[in-house]
Each structure stands twice: as C-alpha cells, then as structure tokens.
UniProtKB/TrEMBL annotation:
InterPro entries: ARM-like, ARM-type_fold, INTS4_8HBD, INTS4_C
Presence of the UniProt keyword Nucleus in the record: yes
Residue stretches making up the Integrator complex subunit 4/Protein SIEL C-terminal Ig-like domain: 562-690
Protein location: Nucleus
GO biological processes: snRNA processing
Protein name in UniProt: Integrator complex subunit 4
Pfam families for the chain: INTS4_8HBD, INTS4_C
Alphabetically ordered keywords of this record: Nucleus
Length: 695
C-alpha cells in the first residue's frame, strides 16, 4: 500500500498507483512513450476493477474521486466559525463539492486511457492499445463487456493490421460477450473487405461468438451468403464458420428452419441442388444445430434426409453424425447397416479390419524370404495391389499402406537393377539408358519416403536413410563403370551421407543393416577413398546384402496438398498480351509437412517448358491444427499462341537444393528425380495474344 497522491492519510495499492501513472503517460507527446505505455497497461492484470473501468471513460467516475466524509465537512465548518442561521432551508445539509484537489486516485488527464490509445493517430499506439485491452479483458469478464463496443469500433480502422488485431482480440474474449443487432451489423459490414485475412478472421469470430436473437442469426447468415457470392474462394472458411454458429445456437436456429429450407406445410417444393455452395452452407448450419436440438430432426423431409446422407459422405468434417434413421429412403435403418457391415468384416471405417489385413500382408512379405526371386517378385506385385486398395478404402491407415507400397517398390526396382543384363555387363560402351532410369526411380522412391511422410520413428527414419545411402552407392558405381562423367562430386556426397547416417544411428542407438555395416567398415579401411576404389569395393556388396523386409508403425502421416483455386473447371480462357505477365491466384492447403522451405509451384506449359516458382515465406499461413495454407499469386508469361491452351499447375517439393549439392552434374536435362508431387494437377486455360500495333 502507498499513500494517495493528494495525501489525507489514505492509501491505495501499489499496482493501482502504478497503473494510474502509466495511464497518464498515454497522452505523452512522444510516440515511443505512448506505445510503451499502451503495452505496459496489458501487463498489469492485478489492477482493480474500478481503475479498469475508468480507462474506458474520459469523464472521471465518482468512485475514482476522494470525497470528504460528512464528519470532516462539519468539522471544517466548526473550525471556520460558520453556523447555520436557520433562515435558509437546508443550509446546513451536507454538500459534496468536488474540487480539483479532492481528486486523488487517478488524474483527470489519465481518465479514458484506452480511449485515447484507440483513437491515437499512430497505428503503433492503436495496435498496442488493442493488444493490452484484449489481455486485460481476458482476465476480467466485466471489463470484456465494457470493451466490446470499443473493439467493434476498431473494425473500421484504416489500417488492415489493426483491424485484424481487433477481430482476433474479440475472438479471444468471445466467451464473455453476447452480440446484439447493432453490434453485429457493424461486424458483418467487414465481410465486404477485400483482404482474405480480414474475412477469414471474421469467419473465425462468428464461429465462436454468441448471438442474442434469431434475427441476429438470420442477419449473420444473409451476410455470409452474400460474402460467398462475392468471394467464392471463401467457401471452406464460411462452412467452418456456419458449423460453429449452428453448434452454438441450436435452439435459436430451430424457429428459422422452415424459412431457411423453404418448407411449406401443404405444397411440395422443388428439390434444391445439393452441389450449390449456398444451399450447402444453409444445410451445414441446420445440421450442426440439429446436433444440439433433437426436436429439429422431426422437421426434416425425405429430400433433406437424402441430402444429409450425401453431405455426411462428401463433407464429414462439416456435417456431424445425427441420430437419424434412413428407413424412409432405403428401407434399412442405419443400425442394421452398421451391424451388417461389422458382421461381414468389410466396413470402410473398420480400422481394426484394415490393420489386420495390413498385418497379414506384412507377414506374407516376411515369409517370402525363402522363395526364389521370380516367386518373390510375383508375391510383391500382388501385395502392392492389395496395399493400393487398402489405402483407398481405409483412410486411417492409408499413409502407412502407401509408405509400405513405396518400400516394396524400392525392393522390386533394386532387384530388377541387379538382375538386368545392363548391370551385369555394365561398361561405358553399352546402352545404359534403361538402367539409368531405374536408378533414378530407386532414388526418387527413397526421397519420397524421407521427405513425403512425417511421424516416422527414429528406427524407421534410420531405415530410410540407409536405403537412400544404398541408392547413392548405386549411382556411384553406375557413374564409374557405365559413363565417362566425373564421379568425384558424387563420391564426396556419398562419404558425407555415410558419415551422417553413422552419426544418426549412433545417436539413436540403432544397429545398421548388413549393407550399411559392410559399407562403413569398408570406407574406414580405405586410406584414400577415391571413386574408382570405392566403386570396386561396393560392387560385391549389392548382391551379398539384399534390402531387409520390415513392417512400419501406424503413426505415419503422408504429406499432401490440395489446390482449392484455381479449380480447373473453367472453360473461359484467360487472355493477356504475349510477352507480358498474367497473375493467377493460387489457394492451396498443405497437410502433414513440417518444412515448407522446399515447396514450389510447378507450371507446365503446352510446349513442354517447366517453371518452378518459389512462394514467399509470408504466403504460408499455419493454423491451430498444424495445417499450412498457401495463398499467393503466380505470374506466367509466354509468346503468342494461335489458340487457347491449358497450363498445368501443381504443388511439388523441390529437393535439388538439399540433395544435389555435390551431384548436380548427374542431373540430366528435364530430370524429375528430385521433384516430388504433393497435389493433383489443375489446368488453367490461357491465351496469349500478340500485342496490337499502334497507329
């Protein structure tokens, strides 16, 4: 406790006194001082509630003034000799005369500190004030309700970053507040903003906020559908927002269902298109509301039930599972379908059955070690077909099935290389092109396993590293014996990779396989590991040590990408002047990828030209689930064409940087060994037109 500024023997808490002094600094002439003051306000969550409330009101509140008691005022009159004459009515009644000197807890200049900060002409001060206001509002629900109107007003700020911070701040304190029509109207006006960050931030806010009335929900839906019409690329963000609105307001949405779905008590209305994004948005809102309002399901007719089951299959992340019988559509209840599928053991979501099948396939593969090479190859090809089908029907073990497929393919390619006549009779005079392509394929399979999957255990990652080391040894022997190119670079790369693998195995207490052990022992015994000497000692190791047969864990996840925009469905050609640039917006989602520094956008032109575009670091945006979104605009250019032709766009990993530091000379023209596809290709129809000649 410290004495109050005006004295009088009263005391106040130290944190309140410090807070009041910092509030006074919010009006300092220096910008840096105001920024620091606005930042420090958010670092004092223990401040009293009356001091917090005063920061949002420029007028000094009565509870922030120190008033003398009636006894003190009477004693002042006694000391001054003033007595009531009785001639004037109530002239001796106590009067609360507020003087400037009686204000002791906080100065009048410090009142409304946050109001001054939010209205400051410099964006740094406004941004710091929004952050501090949010921090204090999270600690105090009462203060959060008072700060609501001020944060909503900041949605109209001229600076995009400040608007985005205000939206994020309101999202963080959404559990303490309820929005009314007037506040919601100001918030929804931001949906017209051209910035996708602002719109998506507002979608997240609407997904977690609480609306007071059904009129608020209807207003929210109308503005969101208008947003969808103006910006179709916001489709997934809008669906996620309406999913949250439905979950938070089940009983508020209930009276709106007949109006939203155009139901009529007597007439049968036309069936809407279940592929229409606007109609799907309404259904997502209704179905998520029905999850918390069981009586809503009684309003669903046969058409709506069909649409529910369709969306449940196509959009399972947005449509929840409802306790709705399917008897009216198929004559069989959902429970009967579930029981029959579990009885037959062929359920798509049957994770246990999928794991059992995968375990059986792995056991068959391990038992094939006693078979001859021809029978073993046939068995591996059959297992590959089963793994491909298994990855299609069971999404939970799809990644491990695909990873196992790549490992088995690498075994087959390795066996084919060793048994080919080109390898047995490898010289510089023979036709070695098919063998070179097989070695490239073997290397690419190793790179896909190393960079295209996450969640590998240290043992599994060590196996992949040793497999890639074997591929590098393959390349070295091929260069030394089958070509006249210099092998110094790849030999140096092989030695460094061998050292890296050995260090990794020692750090994780892993035992190397037979090939790696023999190779490391051989390299240690050489005084001067020259390419010819190393290749000579490596050659007998390939036949002596085959690739080991192993099984993998179920925590593996596959890296992939989905291109949302461009959709590849438009038949309208994008026209531009030949030789100039055409900007194409790209919106893609990247899943299960830890390092995005190798991500590239690959463009294939009709004349076989290939361009790789490196996105900027700020184009990658991570969300709370660890997923990465790529939002950028790529520029394409070409000479004039006689007619419109498709340009193919895809998301790839470009591994030429980390993997070809020493063996760039091995890269032939149009070599795609170090390019790993992450997404499907999308086509964009473009038409470069010749420049018009001036007069």
């Amino acid at each position: 406790m410290v004495p109050t500024p005006s004295g009088g023997g009263e005391k106040m808490r130290l944190v309140d006194d410090a807070f009041a002094k910092i509030c006074h600094a919010i009006n300092d002439p220096c910008v840096q001082v105001r920024v620091l003051a606005a930042t420090l306000l958010g670092k004092m969550p223990q401040v009293g509630q009356n001091f917090l409330d005063q920061t949002l009101d420029k007028k000094l509140m009565s509870d922030m003034r120190r008033k003398r008691s009636a006894h003190e005022r009477q004693w002042e009159k006694v000391k001054s000799g003033e007595w009531s004459s009785g001639k004037k009515w109530a002239d001796d009644a106590p009067q609360e005369l507020i003087e400037a000197a009686s204000v002791s807890l906080i100065s009048s200049g410090a009142a409304g500190a946050f109001v001054h900060g939010l209205e400051d002409e410099f964006l740094e001060v406004r941004s710091a004030a929004v952050d501090s206001l949010c921090t204090l509002a999270i600690k105090s629900p009462d203060f959060a309700n008072l700060a609501l109107d001020f944060l909503v007003d900041m949605f109209n700020d001229e600076i995009e970053d400040v608007r985005l911070k205000a939206i994020d701040s309101l999202t963080k304190i959404s559990k303490y507040i309820v929005l009314w029509e007037d506040q919601l109207e100001t918030i929804l006006a931001v949906l017209e903003d051209s910035s996708i960050d602002i719109r998506e931030g507002l979608h997240k806010l609407l997904a977690v906020c609480h609306l007071m009335t059904k009129d608020c929900v209807k207003m929210c839906l109308d503005h969101i559908l208008e947003n969808l019409k103006r910006y179709p690329q916001d489709k997934k963000s809008i669906w996620k927002s309406l999913e949250g609105v439905g979950k938070n307001h089940p009983w508020v949405v209930l009276p709106l269902v007949p109006q939203l779905l155009s139901m009529h008590p007597f007439f049968d209305t036309s069936e809407p298109d279940p592929e229409d994004p606007a109609y799907v948005s309404v259904l997502i809102l209704v179905f998520n509301s029905a999850k918390g309002c069981p009586t809503m399901a009684t309003l669903f007719d046969e058409k709506l039930l069909r649409h529910y089951h369709y969306l449940r299959d196509t959009l399972p992340h947005f449509v929840p599972e409802l306790n709705i019988s399917n008897e009216s559509i198929t004559g069989t209840s959902d429970k009967q379908i579930a029981s029959s599928s579990s009885g037959s053991g062929t359920s798509i979501g049957g994770n246990t059955n999928g794991r059992l099948i995968l375990k059986e396939l792995t056991a068959k593969l391990k038992s094939s070690s006693n078979l001859n090479s021809e029978m073993k190859t046939r068995l591996c090809k059959l297992i590959l077909k089963d793994l491909k089908r298994l990855s299609e029907v069971d999404q939970e073990i799809s990644a491990i099935a695909k990873f196992s497929s790549l490992y088995i393919k690498a075994q087959l390619v390795y066996t084919n290389c060793l048994s080919s006549s080109a390898w047995i009779q490898l010289t510089q005079n023979t036709q070695n092109e098919p063998l070179r392509l097989q070695i490239q394929s073997f290397m690419q399979l190793c790179l896909k396993m190393q960079y295209g999957f996450t969640g590998l255990s240290p043992k599994e990652y060590g196996i992949v590293m040793q497999l890639k080391l074997r591929a590098l040894a393959f390349q070295l022997v091929y260069i030394v014996r089958g070509s006249n190119a210099s092998a110094l670079a790849i030999c140096q790369n092989l030695l460094e990779q061998a050292e890296t693998v050995q260090k990794y195995l020692e750090e994780n207490n892993l035992t190397p396989d037979e090939f790696t052990f023999a190779m490391l022992k051989m390299l240690d015994s050489l005084d001067e590991p020259k390419p010819g000497t190393v290749a000579k000692h490596l050659l007998p190791l390939f036949e002596a040590h085959q690739i080991p047969l192993i099984s993998f864990s179920s925590s593996i996840k596959m890296a992939s990408a989905t291109i949302i925009e461009p959709t590849g469905e438009s038949d309208n050609a994008l026209k531009f002047t030949a030789g100039l640039l055409l900007g194409i917006p790209v919106d893609a989602e990247i899943h299960n990828l830890e390092d995005t520094s190798y991500v590239r956008i690959m463009i294939n032109y009709p004349d076989q030209q290939v361009h790789l575009i490196c996105p900027r670091a700020q184009d990658f945006r991570s969300d709370s689930n660890g997923e990465v979104r790529l939002l950028t605009t790529i520029s394409i250019s070409h000479q004039a064409w006689t007619e419109a032709c498709p340009v193919t766009i895809s998301i790839v990993l470009d591994l030429r940087g980390p993997e070809t530091n020493y063996n760039r000379k091995l890269m032939w023209k149009k070599d795609s060994t170090y390019i790993i596809q992450l997404s499907e290709e999308k086509q964009v129809l473009v038409s470069p037109k010749p420049a018009k000649r001036g007069i």
